[in-house]
Specification:
Layout: E1 7-11, H1 16-26, E2 32-36, E3 49-52, H2 60-74
Parallel strand pairs: 1-2
Antiparallel strand pairs: 1-3
Length: 76
């Protein structure tokens, strides 16, 4: 994880094009990391998830900002 990261976005393996868009979009923001889910089988995620790095709760303003940008990028 990059130093200074606050937010981790995990994208399901079956959505590589969304992963590419999110990674490119958030690449200039050191506090946001985008990862393609590396887990397999029952542990793999089927939905995108947003987490606070290191556990705990993500700042409400950062979560709202990230969710709004994701909606724009995913066409929702």
């Amino acid at each position: 994880m990059s130093e200074g990261a606050e937010c981790l976005i995990i994208v399901p393996q079956d959505q590589p094009e969304l992963y590419d868009r999110l990674r490119a979009h958030f690449s200039r923001r050191a506090n946001i990391q985008v990862r393609l889910d590396a887990r397999t089988g029952a542990r793999a995620t089927s939905e995108m998830n947003i987490f606070a790095v290191g556990g705990g709760s993500l700042r409400q303003d950062l979560r709202a900002d990230v969710e709004a940008e994701i909606r724009l990028l995913s066409g929702r």
